[in-house]
Amino acid sequence: MLAARIKQAAFPTPKDFDTYDFTAMPSLGKPKILELARGDWLVERANVIFVGQPGTGKTHLATALGLAACRLGYRVRFFTAAALVNRLEEAQKQYQLDRFLGQLDRAQLLVCDELGYLSFSRAGAELLFQVFADRYERRSLLITSNLAFSDWGQVFQGERMTAALLDRLTHRCHIFEMNGESYRFRESMRTKKTKAKDKAADKDAAKSEGD
Ligand code: ADP
Ligand code: MG
């Protein structure tokens, strides 16, 4: 049952809290995130938004929270914003839009990852708006974005649509700003440094052997 829920959610990669290093993002507040993992926000039909630069762990945490929701028995669906808009437009073309919207509606948590990396057609933006607006106070949304709210107009084309959407989305919402350097970047720098140190140590060792 749980395995089926996780499969249905279609997470991009398995990521959980046990592999998340909270010390790398001290501004986040570990207790707050772990409280979300207990699921009260889903009961309240509230939303979660992670905003920040690429590589700061937004997808990791979105997946971990999605997994936590699955474990609590909720139906979850995970999409990138681009994939979701694609599916919506495709469904509309095939006269299957209502059916697909119904499927999305059955998910108690919809995760929309990477909002803002790609902009959509007007029609695509309107479909996504419809999905988000329909969930207001009925179903939870988890959104990740590299864009500050002030730039969401670029995605939703038109200040009025964006304002209306943000008004609903942020009404009952836990917003996390993921500031700082990319975790990936930092890790790769650390690996390089360690390698450089190892190399230097090897050299020293070789030299002392030669002496
Ligand atoms: P984003 O979605 O913000 O671009 P990701 O969640 O994809 O970032 O993170 C990039 C990579 O770094 C992933 O492999 C992720 O698991 C890892 N990562 C990011 N932040 C952390 C962290 N604080 N602790 C452990 N791994 C992290
Ligand atoms: Mg990501």
Q: What report would you give on this structure?
A:
The chain has helices at 2-9, 30-37, 40-43, 58-71, 81-93, 97-106, 122-135, 153-156, 159-169, 183-210; strands at 47-52, 76-80, 109-115, 140-145, 173-178. With 211 residues, the chain is of the alpha/beta class. It has a 5-stranded parallel sheet with strand order 2-3-4-1-5. The model has no long low-confidence stretch (mean pLDDT 91). It is elongated, with a radius of gyration of 21 Å. Helix 1 packs antiparallel against helix 4 (58-71), helix 5 runs antiparallel to helix 6 (97-106) and helix 5 packs across helix 7. The structure holds adenosine-5'-diphosphate and magnesium ion (MG). Residues 58-59, 113-114 line the site of magnesium ion. Adenosine-5'-diphosphate binds at residues 15, 19-21, 24-25, 54-60, 183-184.
Summarize the structure.
The chain is built from ten helices and five strands, in the order αααβαβααβαβααβα. The protein is an alpha/beta fold and 211 residues long. The site of magnesium ion (MG) has 4 residues, from helix 4 and strand 3.
Write the layout of secondary structure elements.
Layout: H1 2-9, H2 30-37, H3 40-43, E1 47-52, H4 58-71, E2 76-80, H5 81-93, H6 97-106, E3 109-115, H7 122-135, E4 140-145, H8 153-156, H9 159-169, E5 173-178, H10 183-210
Parallel strand pairs: 1-4, 1-5, 2-3, 3-4
Helix pairs in contact: 1-4, 5-6, 5-7
Q: Could you name the ranges where pLDDT drops below 50 across 5 or more consecutive residues?
A: none
Q: Give the topology string: H per helix, E per strand.
A: HHHEHEHHEHEHHEH
Care to count the β-strands? 5
Structural class: alpha/beta
- Ligands: adenosine-5'-diphosphate, magnesium ion
Biggest sheet record: 5 strands, parallel
Shape: elongated
